[in-house]
Specification:
The structure holds two protein chains of two kinds. Chain A is built from 14 helices and 13 strands. Chain A is α/β, with parallel strands linked by helices. In chain A, strand 10, helix 10 and strand 11 form a beta-alpha-beta unit. Chain A is globular. By secondary structure, chain B is α/β, with parallel strands linked by helices. Classes of the chains: A alpha/beta, B alpha/beta. The interface between A and B is medium-sized, with 21 and 22 residues.
Chain lengths: ~350, ~350
């Protein structure tokens, strides 16, 4: 079962009793799940370069080509200020970015790949693979504003990039998909804010979804049935589009953005698998609130009896959550998961 | 013959048929890679694969302080920087020149509190899914070893040369007690791995041993070596690992006889630090195999020089008990052209190309 934590949260918990010489996942008893180490990033990455720094912040180019200004303290808790993106023009795409997305680059696969394949063939844990991003990456490479403008001013260009990504992803992961029996694939988009998508769903469907669908079709036809998609924000308008494209599940379903796993389950039934939907903010409030949230709002026992749902905090656990509160949350989840039907009376009939 | 057989046979003084190229003993500085990429090395390849080096690994058991300390800049005043590295070594730097300022262990009571991060039973010392790792590596075709830590170098890192010197004058007993503890700590930490896996070699990693050897009283250092390594080497050999090595830098001739006497039977000897392969052979005969000893500085010179250096060393390879590899980190003064030439020459003279 996946769960993300901010490192500052783990630091806090060390002062509250979490041993410092243990694996956090093991401490809580999370199951193993892994990804095939195929590299879909820029290869070679952009050169890391610091342009300016003082005591408070630094301005630098990251390996994804973005020039950002970032606070030195509390960098984890704040977003950097993006100053420049690697794609400003079509030429940037052709000269600077596309050449870094060569599926044939030898270093996309780890050294000693055959030994890796031999190892994971007989495993007892889920193994997945990254299946790319058809809005999120493009946004990361050109910024929301520029991408939004291109969508209207030069939609063909955006479609060209999305289509290239699909071909790149398929060609890159082909060897892994053919040589290993994979359990799931993951797409990453993070393409919504609190009130809805960062792009018109109609334009998304027109320009980017065909690429997403191409990859989903490829995966499904090669036996990868589960395709999960990661997007923060309020994604209700996007879910049906993704389902049509072949995506089978979404996470982390941010409650603060208005997501509600019970509503989604009622709407989509077993067509939509879900991870998440547990409000990170509630965990800071106290044990009674946590219990109320899990039974009354998430309706955890009912959701678990339905299947296709894995409870998870709706993003990384923030540092205002105490270890005690998290342990309380986690013990409820573990108890309910053992036999959810025993707890059905604790949540109102869904 | 696979990489595992080649490696083991060479170190056991068997007549070699093929030269091993164990990647673990080739270390490249990041700046070198940048230079080589400017000189034609493709940026999207694995260097190890590109050079035709062979797999050679250490098991992923964390044998150092756990949790390790976070590096921290404590204070920065104009050109001075007071900092702390991951081993709790505090330093006051003037730009490029570091001045050692404070070490984590200054006395017995520091050591007692330091011991809490030297707990052999810390769960995170082993990979979380150890049993699965064991399944992976049990049937392998490459050499796999276990690190036995760095007892001498740790002393230098944690106490400092000055601290060691003054303790020797006043009360050396607490340093001896650290050494005793470290021997038990190392054995206890690696016990599970040695029990679960058929390992090919065990190795001490001692980059700072020469600093101790050239500053402290050599008789005392030899005594420390015997106390630190002796029990570990005996135990490792009793557990069936017959190849026990030490990787060190600098001029360590004064220690090699002691190391060999303890049972250490392969060493990395730094030619550029004064380590003489011929001297080792004459003094220790076939008791000690050698890995390394190709003077890495020569690789920055002319192709003729490289050829001469490889020629000088290759006869030792033919006798067995020697794996030629560069004797230090490959720095950015070595061109891509030169390094390719070195590997090619080594392969040709080793009878591969």
């Amino acid at each position: 079962m996946p769960q993300w934590f901010w490192s500052s949260t783990i630091k806090r918990w060390h002062s509250e009793g979490l041993p410092q010489d243990v694996y956090v996942d093991e401490f809580f008893g999370f199951d193993r799940y892994e990804f095939v180490p195929v590299n879909l990033d820029f290869l070679p990455p952009f050169e890391y370069e610091v342009y300016y720094e003082n005591e408070e912040y630094k301005v630098y180019r990251r390996q994804d080509g973005c020039k950002v200004k970032e606070f030195k303290r509390y960098a984890e808790a704040s977003m950097p200020h993006w100053l420049e993106y690697p794609i400003k023009t079509k030429l940037d795409w052709e000269r600077e970015v596309m050449p870094r997305l060569n599926p044939k680059s030898p270093a996309r696969y780890p050294l000693w790949w055959d030994d890796y394949v031999r190892w994971v063939k007989e495993r007892d844990y889920p193994l997945g693979i990254s299946a790319g991003s058809y809005y999120g990456w493009i946004r990361n490479w050109m910024g929301v504003e520029r991408l939004s403008r291109f969508i209207y001013e030069d939609p063909e260009f955006i479609k060209e990039i999305a289509d290239y990504i699909a071909d790149f992803v398929i060609e890159t992961i082909r060897r892994a998909v053919e040589e290993i029996e994979l359990d799931f694939a993951i797409m990453w988009e993070d393409m919504a804010m609190k009130t809805g998508p960062l792009v018109s769903p109609r334009k998304f469907k027109e320009l980017m979804v065909p690429a997403c669908k191409k990859v989903c079709d490829y995966l499904h036809s090669n036996g990868v049935e589960i395709i999960l998609l990661d997007s923060d924000g309020f994604i209700d308008q996007l879910i049906p589009i993704w389902l049509d494209a072949g995506v089978t599940g979404v996470y982390p379903l941010e409650v603060a953005a208005g997501e509600n796993v019970v509503v989604l389950r009622k709407k989509y039934g077993r067509k939509l698998a879900m991870f998440g939907g547990v409000d990170k903010r509630v965990l800071a409030r106290g044990c009674d609130e946590i219990e109320r949230h899990l039974f009354q709002e998430v309706k955890l026992p009912w959701m678990l009896t339905q299947g296709g749902y894995t409870p998870m905090i709706d993003h990384s656990v923030p540092p205002d959550v105490s270890l005690r509160n998290f342990m309380h949350y986690w013990s409820i989840v573990k108890n309910v998961a053992e036999d959810p039907s025993r707890y059905l009376d604790k949540c109102e009939e869904a | 013959m696979n990489a595992r057989e080649k490696f083991v046979q060479a170190l056991r003084f068997k007549k070699p048929s093929e030269m091993p190229f164990p990647c673990m003993f080739y270390k490249f500085h990041p700046e070198t890679l940048k230079r080589w990429q400017r000189e034609g090395l493709s940026k999207d390849v694995h260097l190890i694969e590109q050079l035709g080096l062979e797999r050679c690994e250490l098991i992923p058991v964390d044998i150092g302080p756990l949790p390790n300390y976070e590096a921290a800049g404590l204070e920065q005043i104009e050109e001075w920087r007071l900092g702390m590295d991951r081993s709790l070594f505090t330093s006051l730097e003037i730009k490029a020149r570091g001045v050692e300022e404070e070490f984590p262990i200054r006395n017995l009571s520091d050591y007692e509190s330091f011991k809490r991060i030297l707990n052999p039973d810390s769960p995170a010392r082993y990979p979380r899914f150890w049993d699965d790792y064991v399944r992976r590596v049990k049937e392998r075709d490459y050499p796999l070893g276990v690190s036995l830590g760095s007892p001498l170098s740790w002393l230098v890192e944690w106490i400092g040369l000055k601290g060691i010197a003054s303790s020797l004058k006043t009360d050396p007993s607490w340093i001896i007690s650290i050494i005793d503890y470290l021997a038990n700590f190392i054995i206890s930490t690696v016990k599970r791995a040695v029990h679960d896996l058929p390992l090919d070699f065990a190795i001490f990693l001692e980059p700072r041993a020469y600093r101790l050897a050239c500053t402290a009283d050599i008789g005392w250092v030899i005594d420390i070596c015997e106390k630190a390594y002796g029990p570990i080497v005996s135990w490792v050999k009793n557990m069936g690992i017959d190849l026990v090595g030490i990787e060190s830098l600098g001029h360590v001739h004064e220690l090699t006889e002691t190391w060999a006497g303890i049972g250490i039977n392969f060493m990395s000897i730094e030619s550029s630090g004064g380590g003489d392969l011929e001297w080792i052979r004459k003094t220790l005969n076939n008791r000690v195999a050698v890995v390394g000893n190709i003077d890495h500085k020569v690789l920055a010179w002319s192709k003729r020089d490289i050829m001469d250096e490889v020629s000088r060393k290759i006869s030792f390879f033919a006798q067995g008990g020697y794996i030629p590899t560069p004797d230090g980190t490959i720095l950015s003064d070595i061109s891509w052209e030169n390094f390719k030439y070195f590997i090619k020459t080594l392969k040709q003279m080793g009878g591969i190309a």
